[in-house]
């Protein structure tokens, strides 16, 4: 549980003085006392960890990890649980940022080159608020919605893989429309197989 405590601290600034609980092994049943400890003073974080617990115990067919209180956790299970905790806690930060739209910078940064309209939009939503973007930069942005079709998902998937698969922190703001029908008679073709595989990962 110590890593869950660390994620609460680094992502949300929540420090819990409960050494005994932090030393408990990470299991689906050990979440309950952590959630109870958080609820009086940090209800949003408690609700978020409840969502994580639900995902951990849901059947795999429903997108969960299919864990039970007696399931021995493998290192792979632990990595997935830590990722879920990190992603759902970050979703709270994203929600906080979306309450108030980013305000324009009071002045143009010195020595900033001229930018295209697209670059200005990205710079305006840059979380670090540098005031500019340039080709080759990787930035974290606050966005309203992401809409994509399965045709564009291939390129997005390659970018996600290049960034070490960071995941989607607010899946209620990401919509992937699978709007192509594949003829079963051509399922054997390599390019079609690749499209099916990429679309499956997107879902």
Automatic annotation (TrEMBL):
Positions of the UniProt region annotated as Disordered: 95-114
UniProt KW keywords: Iron
Name used for this protein in its record: Uncharacterized protein
């Amino acid at each position: 549980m110590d890593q869950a405590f660390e994620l609460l601290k680094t992502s949300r600034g929540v420090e819990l003085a409960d050494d005994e609980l932090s030393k408990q092994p990470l299991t689906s049943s050990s979440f309950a006392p952590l959630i109870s400890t958080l609820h009086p003073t940090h209800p949003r974080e408690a609700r978020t960890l409840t969502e994580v617990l639900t995902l951990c115990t849901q059947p795999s067919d429903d997108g969960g990890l299919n864990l039970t209180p007696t399931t021995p956790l493998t290192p792979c299970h632990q990595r997935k649980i830590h990722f879920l905790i990190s992603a759902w806690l970050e979703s709270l930060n994203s929600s906080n940022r979306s309450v108030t739209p980013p305000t324009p910078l009071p002045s143009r940064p010195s020595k900033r080159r001229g930018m295209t309209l697209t670059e200005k939009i990205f710079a305006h939503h840059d979380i670090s608020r540098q005031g500019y973007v340039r080709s080759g930069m990787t930035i974290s942005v606050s966005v309203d919605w992401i809409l994509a079709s399965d045709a564009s998902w291939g390129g997005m998937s390659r970018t996600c893989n290049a960034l070490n698969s960071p995941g989607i922190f607010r899946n209620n703001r990401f919509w992937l429309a699978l709007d192509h029908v594949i003829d079963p008679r051509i399922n054997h073709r390599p390019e079609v197989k690749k499209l099916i595989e990429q679309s499956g990962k997107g879902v």
